[in-house]
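Title: Comparing notes on inverse folding

I've been comparing how different people in this forum approach sequence design from structure. To keep things fair, I'm posting one structure and asking everyone to reply with a full sequence. Here's the target:
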């Protein structure tokens, strides 16, 4: 009987020691596991981010429906007073420069197929050319012909000399003309490029006294004897667009640079091109 309390205490001590040993082993395992997890998260930040996101998950909200902006918004340029004027009262000359909706559709369709440009984009370029033409009093088909020959209707084209955009404007030379439209960064904006290029073209034609002289200055060949057929190519494209605008069926597979393959010294080709333009008055000039 006297020995029972001693045996009971001994058993309790053994049990307590086992519990402490088990707890020590458990803490060791937990500590090692924590160190391993921390090392893995340090090596793999993506797993750490995923774990953090899963632990701090925000309540799910309905995703808003995202709609693409219209093409007109992507190609919008700062408005000018003349461009925002009311079109209710148009003069006969303005109506001729704007053309009819059907004429613009014919021109748009033909240019889209000829230069393999999306119909919506071509429609925006044609509409801008017509509106610019009415504003500055220049034939829209001449503007479109220059755009076609200069860049193939590529608004992001750039020449080795630094000419940019649809009408290949030397933005660094004519930087002051872009100031009211956002500065030099607007040179690749299709609307701004068409407007500035058209103003430059109109100025050269006015100073040169003829479309041919204006085109020669526009291409930078005013000081040379010839322009390597540039004017002939533009006027040939202008005549095609003129026919298209009247509803005629004009092939879209005519080689665009056919005139460039001819030798510039051939006076007959230049004379023929000049004869094809004579008798056809370019609106606004």
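Reply #1:
Here's my take.
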């Amino acid at each position: 009987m006297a020995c029972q309390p001693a045996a009971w205490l001994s058993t309790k001590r053994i049990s307590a020691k086992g519990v402490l040993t088990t707890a020590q082993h458990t803490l060791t395992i937990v500590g090692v596991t924590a160190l391993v997890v921390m090392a893995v998260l340090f090596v793999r930040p993506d797993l750490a981010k995923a774990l953090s996101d899963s632990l701090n998950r925000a309540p799910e909200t309905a995703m808003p429906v995202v709609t693409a902006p219209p093409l007109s918004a992507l190609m919008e340029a700062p408005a000018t007073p003349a461009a925002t004027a009311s079109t209710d009262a148009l003069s006969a000359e303005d109506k001729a420069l704007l053309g009819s909706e059907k004429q613009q559709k014919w021109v748009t369709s033909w240019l889209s197929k000829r230069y393999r440009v999306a119909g919506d984009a071509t429609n925006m370029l044609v509409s801008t050319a017509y509106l610019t033409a009415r504003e500055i009093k220049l034939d829209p088909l001449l503007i479109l012909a220059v755009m076609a020959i200069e860049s193939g209707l590529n608004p992001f084209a750039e020449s080795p000399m630094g000419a940019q955009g649809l009408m290949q404007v030397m933005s660094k030379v004519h930087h002051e003309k872009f100031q009211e439209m956002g500065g030099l960064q607007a040179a690749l904006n299709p609307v701004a490029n068409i407007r500035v290029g058209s103003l430059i073209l109109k100025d050269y034609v006015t100073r040169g006294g003829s479309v041919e002289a204006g085109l020669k200055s526009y291409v930078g060949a005013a000081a040379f004897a010839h322009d390597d057929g540039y004017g002939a190519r533009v006027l040939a494209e202008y005549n095609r667009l003129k026919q298209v605008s009247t509803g005629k069926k004009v092939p879209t597979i005519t080689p665009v640079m056919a005139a460039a393959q001819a030798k510039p010294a051939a006076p007959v080709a230049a004379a023929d091109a000049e004869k094809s333009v004579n008798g056809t008055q370019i609106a606004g000039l």
